[in-house]
Specification:
The protein is an alpha+beta fold. Among the domains are: 164-289, Tetrahydropterin Synthase, Chain A; 295-407. It has helices at residues 2-9, 20-43, 51-74, 76-86, 95-101, 109-112, 188-194, 205-209, 227-239, 244-248, 256-274, 291-347, 354-371, 373-378, 381-407; strands at residues 115-118, 122-128, 131-136, 139-142, 147-154, 158-167, 173-184, 213-214, 220-221, 277-284. Strand 6 (158-167) and strand 7 (173-184) form a beta hairpin. The protein is rod-shaped. The protein starts with a helix and ends with a helix.
C-alpha cells in the first residue's frame, strides 16, 4: 500500500495537476479499507463455527496469518535471530520440561498463528503468565493474548508399570512389578449430550495440570507418571507384612495376592480421584524369590510329594495282595466245586474209577482257570504258575493216598 501511495503521489489528473500527498493518502485509505472489509467477509468462512464467535475468531486468525507473513518477509533476519535465541540451550533442569510443555506434538499452526486443531483424544492446558488460565480442546483452539501452552493431556486410557523390590516379614527379598490402568475422570452425561468420544470432566483438568513432583534424579514427574510409583510404594509396604509361606498361596479367588491388589487399588484410587484421575485397575506381576530360596522350596515340595507317593504305593501293594488272595481262593473253590459235582455224578454210575475221574476233572479245572481272562487280569503269571504247581502237588499227594488205600 505504501508503494501504491508513492505511485499515486506522482500521478496527475486530466488538468495535469498532481494528486500529491492527499491523493496518496486517499488511495492508501481506500485500499486499506477494501482489504479489511475483504478479510471481514472471508472470516466467516474460515472456521466451522457459526455466529459471532466464529466470525470474530476467523478474522483474528486471518490477521495473525498476514502479520506472521509480513514479519517473515519484511524482518526475516531479525526474526530468525529471535527464534534462534528462543530455541537455544536451556538449563539442565528445564530440558525435560521443554519436551512436555511446548506444542511440538500439536500442529505447527500453534507456533505460526497461535491457533490450531487439537486432536480428539487430547486436551491442552493454557497459562497466562505463571497462572492457570483455562483448559482447551479438543477441536479448534485460539490462544488469547499472553496465553501459552502448558501441558498436553492425553484423554485415552493410560497404562504405566514399575518394578518393585521388597522384603518379606521373615527377611527374604522378593522382586515383582506393579501396573496401573487409569484415565482422566469422565462425565457420562456429556457423552450423551455432546457426542464426545472422551467426555471428560473439565473440572478435573486443573488438578491434573498441578499433579507433578520431582523424582530422585531431579527430573520432573508429570501427571501420567504419578500413580505407578504410588502403587509400587504401597506394594512394597504390603509385602513386608507377609512371610514367604503366606505369599506362596497365590492361587484361588481369595489368595493373598488378590487381597494385596484390592488394598492397593483402594488407596491409590483415593489419591487419583483427588487429582482428577480415575483408577481403572491394578496388576501385580509374578513374585520372584532368590534362586537358593526357590531350590529349597522345590526340595521341600519334592520330599512331601515323595512321601505321598510312597503312601500311595504301599496302599496299592496291599490292595494287590488282597486281590491276589481273593483270586486264589476263588480258583481253589471253583476247582473243588467242579470235582465235587463230578464225584456226585459218577457215584450214580457203576464200574467207575474215582481216581481217574478226579484226576481228569482236576486237569480240566486248571486249564479253564489258566485260560480265563478275568483270572489272568487279577493274578500275575508267576502267581498263576505257583497256583498250578500247588494244585498239582496236592493232587499227587491225594492220588498216592488213594492208591495206597486200594492196595491195602
Amino acid at each position: 500500500m505504501i508503494i501504491l501511495g508513492v505511485i499515486v503521489a506522482f500521478l496527475a489528473d486530466f488538468n495535469r495537476l498532481r494528486y500529491g500527498n492527499l491523493g496518496a493518502l486517499i488511495w492508501i485509505g481506500v485500499t486499506f479499507f477494501t482489504f479489511v472489509f475483504g478479510l471481514l467477509y472471508y472470516a466467516q468462512f474460515v472456521l466451522p463455527k457459526q455466529g459471532h464467535e466464529g466470525w470474530a475468531e476467523g478474522f483474528e486468525l486471518l490477521v495473525r496469518y498476514y502479520t506472521s507473513m509480513s514479519e517473515k518477509y519484511l524482518g526475516g533476519s531479525g526474526s530468525q535471530r529471535q527464534s534462534a535465541q528462543r530455541s537455544g540451550p536451556r538449563r539442565r533442569g528445564s530440558k525435560k520440561t521443554k519436551v512436555k510443555l511446548t506444542p511440538q506434538k500439536l500442529p505447527p499452526s500453534f507456533t505460526n498463528v497461535r491457533a490450531g486443531i487439537v486432536p480428539g483424544h487430547k486436551m491442552i492446558t493454557l497459562l497466562k503468565g505463571n497462572d492457570f488460565s483455562r483448559a482447551a480442546g479438543p477441536g479448534f483452539v485460539l490462544l488469547y493474548r499472553k496465553e501459552r501452552i502448558d501441558k498436553i493431556i492425553d484423554l485415552r486410557p493410560q497404562k504405566r508399570s514399575q518394578d518393585v523390590i521388597g522384603t518379606t516379614r521373615d527377611g527374604i527379598p522378593v522382586e515383582t512389578n506393579v501396573s496401573v490402568n487409569f484415565r482422566v475422570q469422565q462425565e457420562p452425561a456429556r457423552q450423551a449430550f455432546d457426542g464426545l468420544i472422551y467426555p471428560i470432566d473439565k473440572d478435573s483438568i486443573f488438578p491434573i495440570s498441578n499433579f507433578t513432583s520431582v523424582d530422585e534424579n531431579g527430573s520432573i514427574r508429570y501427571w501420567d507418571d504419578q500413580l505407578a510409583p504410588l502403587a509400587a510404594g504401597e506394594l512394597s509396604n504390603e509385602l513386608s507384612t507377609y512371610n514367604l509361606d503366606e505369599l506362596q498361596h497365590t492361587s484361588g479367588e481369595h489368595s493373598i495376592k488378590n487381597e494385596i491388589k484390592q488394598r492397593i487399588q483402594r488407596k491409590v484410587s483415593r489419591i487419583a480421584a483427588e487429582h482428577g484421575l480415575e483408577l481403572m485397575g491394578v496388576g501385580i506381576g509374578h513374585l520372584k524369590f532368590p534362586e537358593s530360596i526357590t531350590q529349597q522350596r522345590i526340595k521341600t515340595w519334592q520330599a512331601e510329594w515323595q512321601r505321598k507317593i510312597e503312601v500311595k504305593h504301599a496302599a496299592g501293594d496291599a490292595e494287590a495282595t488282597r486281590r491276589i488272595k481273593q483270586a486264589r481262593a476263588r480258583a481253589q473253590i471253583e476247582i473243588i466245586e467242579r470235582i465235587t459235582q463230578s464225584i456226585d455224578a459218577m457215584q450214580q454210575q457203576e464200574d467207575t474209577n474215582l481216581t481217574e475221574i478226579i484226576t481228569l476233572r482236576m486237569i480240566e479245572a486248571l486249564e479253564e482257570a489258566t485260560t480265563n481272562d478275568s483270572v489272568q487280569a487279577l493274578i500275575p503269571q508267576q502267581v498263576m504258575t505257583n497256583l498250578v504247581l500247588d494244585a498239582s502237588n496236592q493232587m499227587q499227594s491225594w492220588l498216592s493216598r488213594q492208591t495206597g488205600g486200594e492196595s491195602s
